[in-house]
Structure formats: C-alpha cells, structure tokens
Amino acid sequence: MLEMRPDCERCGADLPAEVGGAFICSFECTFCAPCADALDEACPNCGGELLDRPTRSKALQAKFPASTMRKFAL
Q1: Cα 55 from Cα 32, distance rounded (Å)
Q2: 21: closest CA among 42, 48, 44, 51?
Q3: pLDDT at residue 19 in the model
Q4: Which of 72, 56, 44, 41 is nearest to 3 (CA)?
Q5: Could you tell me the pTM of the whole model?
Q6: Per the domain annotation, does 10 fall within a domain?
Q7: pLDDT tens by residue, 2-52
C-alpha cells in the first residue's frame, strides 16, 4: 500500500491523497505537478522516473489513512 505522503518534497504544496496531481518515484518520493515538470519527471533523490500517483478515496482513508509526516524541509 502506498504511503500517500501529504506534501511536495520540493515546494511543500499540499497533496491530499484523494486529489490527483501528485507524482511519485518507486521510493515514493512525492512532488506536485509543477515541480515534477521542473525536474523533467526525474526524481532528484534517486534519479527514478516520476509518475502520476493514484488517488485514494476518502471512504478508504478511514481504514487505510494517508501519511501525515511532511517531507518538505524549510
């Protein structure tokens, strides 16, 4: 099951699990669409490809909650 991280690691934008527009690599590094575009869809951490993250319905989040640990470093 994906961790569904709540923010972009590059700019800190909120990325709710139930909304599209997040991009992840195979290690689940997470970026918003503008940052993924700026990075040319390549993860700056591992060099992997950034792909669309699937969404998780709100109904399933009660049983399978998304992560609340933010990765953006101020």
Answers
A1: 13
A2: 51
A3: 94
A4: 56
A5: 0.89
A6: yes
A7: 999 999 999 999 999 999 999 999 999 999 999 999 999 999 999 999 999
The single residue listed with the structure tokens 């709710």 is: 16
Structure tokens at 14: 């909120």
CA–CA separation, 27 vs 45, rounded Å? 9
Residue 74 belongs to some domain of the structure: no
**How many residues does the structure list for the chain?**
74
Q: Is residue 26 part of a domain?
A: yes
Q: Among all chains, which residue has been given the structure tokens 């470093």?
A: 73
Domain that holds residue 10: 1-54
Quote the tokens at residue 6: 């709540």
Residues in CB range of 55: below 8 A, 6 or more apart = 17, 18, 19, 20
